[in-house]
């Protein structure tokens, strides 16, 4: 089993250098779990309050991009920790993915994304015959 982690510890430094890029994002990064099984990747992410039509998922070869936006309310809060604003998360997987067979579901605020590996990336078993 392989886990893919792509932290970026310099996010705050980048925000200081280019503050205009972070006005709509509000520093929210979509947290995901990715695991690899024999012939597919399984991605899970918390997306509380979002519906299927509020998320966009793009797949190109081995790159998966998830985009969405949490609607912000103009109310006064004592404490505000729930996500707000737009987000975009791009993941680079180790092998190409078959985008035609990908399947995404949202169940109780959790995005479950199944990404089958492309046929060319699947291991082949070759039988050896003896004479």
Keywords:
131 residues, mainly beta, Immunoglobulin-like, 1 helix, 5% helix, elongated
User: SSE order, as H and E?
Assistant: HEEEEEEE
Strand order of the largest sheet: 1-2-7-6
| Coarse structural class | mainly beta
Number of strands: 7
Poorly predicted segments: 21-26
Q: Give the biggest sheet.
A: 4 strands, antiparallel
Span between termini: 38 Å
Q: Taking Cα atoms only, what radius of gyration do you get, to the nearest Å?
A: 19 Å
> Which of globular, elongated, flat, extended, rod-shaped describes the shape?
elongated
CATH architecture: Sandwich
Number of domains: 1
Average pLDDT, rounded to a whole number, is 81
What is the helix fraction of residues, given as a range?
under 10%
Highest CATH level, the class: Mainly Beta
CATH topology heading: Immunoglobulin-like
Percent strand: 35-45%
Given the structure, what is the number of helices?
1
General description of the model:
By secondary structure, this protein is mainly β. The chain has one domain (11-120): Sandwich (Immunoglobulin-like). The chain is built from 1 helix and 7 strands. The chain has one helix spanning 11-17; strands at residues 32-36, 40-46, 55-60, 63-70, 85-92, 103-107, 110-116. The strands form 2 sheets. Strands 1-2-7-6 form a 4-stranded antiparallel β-sheet, with no helix packed on it. Strands 3-4-5 form a 3-stranded antiparallel β-sheet, with no helix packed on it. Strand 6 and strand 7 (110-116) form a beta hairpin. The longest helix has 7 residues, at 11-17. It is elongated and about 80 Å long.
């Amino acid at each position: 089993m392989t886990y893919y982690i792509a932290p970026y510890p310099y996010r705050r430094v980048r925000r200081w250098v280019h503050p205009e890029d972070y006005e709509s994002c509000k520093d929210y990064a979509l947290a995901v779990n990715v695991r690899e099984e024999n012939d597919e990747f399984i991605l899970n992410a918390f997306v509380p309050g979002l519906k299927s039509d509020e998320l966009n998922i793009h797949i190109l070869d081995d790159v998966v991009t998830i985009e969405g936006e949490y609607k912000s309310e103009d109310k006064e809060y004592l404490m505000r920790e729930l996500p707000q604003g737009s987000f975009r998360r791009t993941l680079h997987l180790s092998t190409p993915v078959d985008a035609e067979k990908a399947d995404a579901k949202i169940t109780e605020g959790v995005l479950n994304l199944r990404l089958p590996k492309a046929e060319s990336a699947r291991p082949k078993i070759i039988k050896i015959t003896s004479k």
